[in-house]
Amino acid sequence: MLLATIDLETLALEANxxxxxxxxCIFDNERLNTHEELVSQGxxxxxxxxSQAAKGRKISQSTLEWWSEQGESAQECLNNPNKIAVRDxxxxxxxxxxxTGMGDTPYHPSRKKLKWYARGPHFDISKMxxxxxxxxxxxxxxxxxxxxxxxxxxxxxxxxxxxxVKPSNMIPHNSLHDAAFDAWMMQQVKNNKDNLVIDLTHVRx
Length: 205
What we know:
It contains nine helices and five strands; from the N terminus they run E-E-H-E-H-H-H-H-H-E-H-E-H-H. The radius of gyration is 17 Å and the shape is globular. Strand 4 (115-118), helix 7 (121-134) and strand 5 (146-148) form a beta-alpha-beta unit. The chain starts with a strand and ends in a 14-residue tail after the last helix. The chain has helices at residues 35-40, 49-54, 61-68, 72-75, 89-99, 109-112, 121-134, 149-155, 175-191, and strands at residues 2-10, 19-28, 43-46, 115-118, 146-148.
């Protein structure tokens, strides 16, 4: 079954935050892929920030300060040269869907069934919905296909929002790498449950 994971990087925490990038990974949850493979088959879309700010979308000083403390690899989303206009979203997203057999138009029937998983839909999905509304773009998901990754993981045995040890090539706070990591964890929990390696630094007492 094909599923999608999504992750954002933003300049604020509010629903109308300026969105720096969105990572999307469409994957088969019946398979086991490496994190590197999932990254290679996903996309990272970088959005123009000036046009968002002109629409009144929020930039938080505390978030800017947080970004200044992150690594250089993560900070690349701040000034990535490949930024696109929000209205050009489907030009990129349609190619990803075509590459995964889901057609090159938003009307392909398989897209209506695609389940979208986010690590807290109220953060990622609500911000993307707000962004799309600002620019008169239709969201690619149906409201009834939105799912929460934390809930899925807990219901499938990874209790209390535990995480697995991150792959060595993973870049924290890179939206595509984070989306691919969530997809990788879902595959591991479903298909490799006896060999999970828990990241003990995330265990809460």
